[in-house]
Write a structure and sequence with these properties.
By secondary structure, the protein is an alpha+beta fold. It is 37% helix and 19% strand. The chain has 17 helices and 22 strands. α3 (63-76) packs antiparallel against α10 and α14 (521-535) packs across α16. The relative contact order is 0.09.
Length: 577
Amino acid sequence: MPTRTESFHAAIDRLEENIGKFKRGEISPDQFRPLRLGMGLYAQLAHVKHMQRIKIPGGRITAEQLDVLADVTDRWGRGLAHVTTRQCIQLHHLELEDAVDVQRVLVPAGISCVGACADAVRNVTASHLAGVVEEEVFDVSPYAHAITQHFYFHEQNLRLPRKFKIGLSGSDRDHAQIMINDIGLLATMGSAEGDATSKAPGELEPGFAVYVAGGLGSTPEIAHLWREFVPARDILAVCEAVMAVFFRDGERKNRKKARLKFVIRKVGEAEFFRRLDEVLAGIQAERGAVLSEQLGQYLGEYAEAAPPPLDPDKALLGDAAFARWMRTNTIPQQQRGYRVVTVKLPLGDITGAQLRQLAALCRAYGNGEVRATNTQNFVLRWVPEERLVPLHRALGLIGLAEADADHITDVVACPGADYCTLAVTKSMSVGAQVREHLVAQSSRHEADDIIRQLGAFSIKISGCPNSCGQHHVADIGMTGMLSKGADGVERAAYSFRLGGGCGPGARIGDRMDGRILEEDAPGLIAAIARFYVDQRSAGETFQEFVLRKGTQEIYKAGLAVTGNVVHGVDAGAVAAE
């Protein structure tokens, strides 16, 4: 039986062979499409260039892997890499043949692109704070690794009705956004009643609450709770059961209806859960012990580097810029003396040079690795508090010391029409406009700074309804579309949603009537943010504020300040009031 590395190289060899067949006209574009997608290769714009998506399980990247990613970014990605909302890395403007070379360089570093796109188990995501903050029940990172390895070459993978997403969170705050995944696993402690292999009565063991059939796209769905507790040792069987039901019962004719959420909508929650229970029982009876043993082997492969030693006698002295950065970009770990540091990447972009320099910094100041986040940033974990000042200075030298991570100026955006064949607007461009507008508005004294008053606040932008920018689950979400004005000219515009989010009370944001022209969007966002600051109750989150005030009142308050014109056939109600 081939090793995993040998299987990765064989998959790359097949990609090279299929590219040759496509170039020679031996297979059609429709035949070639799933073959390249299965190796993470998307066509861009006029299908002249391509995007390579690189899977980063759980978002975990070692310093050595950062060095390799820097090399492929500089050599084949025009010097610029992009972090996605599913913790992947993307390179753009590649030739078809480049993908073969890129992947052959990545595999020796332990990085693969198998199933990064296509009808497959996509990148398995996990909380970037797994195991290092007090609220985390236990570290889910090893389980993200195990699930990833198990499904790379699973017989049903790459043959599913459509894409299949799995996420793991260690706390109710749901940093991995499990509620919008096909399988969402929430760490918990419990006991499996009636299980002969379970712990002694009353003794708790690690496990997961299992949520299923979540997803975004044009018809979003918050995941449904299937099991309140399954032992962690059974997690491969649980994932196989959900995937098997999808493989068997998922739609295969109409791709617009081919996600798992459509199965539960069609048959109802009770019948869907009955099918899952039935398939899981069969898997457990036939292969439960084998899968548990395989899980143990996968978990044994996972090892996180040791943290650097502490030196508490060193002073922590920095300037005002450092103080703001420390407040907004760092949080204390549950391990006393260490902090998690967020490296803010504007719109998820980072250069090859910065990747290489970041590798050196995580070796010097952390434990030699970073984690990608679903807000398109990186975090360094295990940074001793006494090293924060020199780390901040070093980040400043490479242009990565911007404060206010995960605040209103830290905009999340999909690649948009600059890269994607599906997008109708340039979401990254408007994201930059939003950032520039809000940064300019925050130049007054920090005591009156709107960013500080808002605290953590999310803006997410998608260039089309497919929601790659996750606009449905943001404080303010924007969907790109074209809108025809009174002059008959089509212009780039955005539909707004307010009050979405994952975690406790996960919900899809409420859609506002009408569409706002691209150039008016930054002003409207700023007006809504100020209205929230002025009108909120003590301790009230923006999601709670939206539920109390109502979306239309907030929207009208924003329009009253900006004087924006609302476009679109559904705009009359707002415009008339």
